[in-house]
Automatic annotation (TrEMBL):
Gene3D superfamilies: 3.30.1390.10. It comes from Propylenella binzhouense. GO terms for molecular function: peptidase activity. It holds the Pfam family ClpS. HAMAP family: ClpS. Belongs to the ClpS family. Binds to the N-terminal domain of the chaperone ClpA. Residues 19-97 form the Adaptor protein ClpS core domain. Involved in the modulation of the specificity of the ClpAP-mediated ATP-dependent protein degradation. Keywords: Hydrolase, Protease. GO terms for biological process: protein catabolic process; proteolysis. The gene is clpS. This is ATP-dependent Clp protease adapter protein ClpS. Residues 1-14 are annotated as: Disordered.
Length: 102
């Protein structure tokens, strides 16, 4: 009824502004040891890239040091980073995957 036990009125405003979710960029970092084919596989498996797009991104990371895998909401970005880091560790590759606020 709009009143708390303390007799204080509570006014709730209907949400009007559509608020955009915070987005995060998931990045792969270059290193000297992870095989190129492994990185391509990671991009296909965890980021739904085609063979050609995965190869393009892998070569970009190889040549520039860092590259974008995708842009996601916080929870999804965090899940991707964990999946890639667990997969790389399992195969004993030093591949690093990080997220940054867009
Ligand atoms: N630089 C690695 C090599 O020459 C390939 C590589 C690409 C590693 C992208 C990591 O995120 C990476 N084998």
């Amino acid at each position: 009824d709009g009143r708390t036990g303390s007799g204080t009125a509570v006014v709730t405003k209907t949400q009007t502004k559509a608020k955009r979710p915070n987005l995060y960029r998931v990045l792969l970092l270059n290193d000297d040891y992870t095989p190129m084919e492994f990185v391509v596989h990671v991009l296909i498996r965890f980021f739904q890239k085609s063979q050609d797009e995965a190869t393009r991104i892998m070569l970009h990371v190889h040549n520039h040091g860092v590259g974008e895998c995708g842009i996601y909401t916080y929870e999804i970005a965090e899940t991707k980073v964990t999946q890639v880091m667990d997969f790389a560790r399992k195969h004993q590759h030093p591949l690093q995957c990080v997220m940054e606020k867009k």
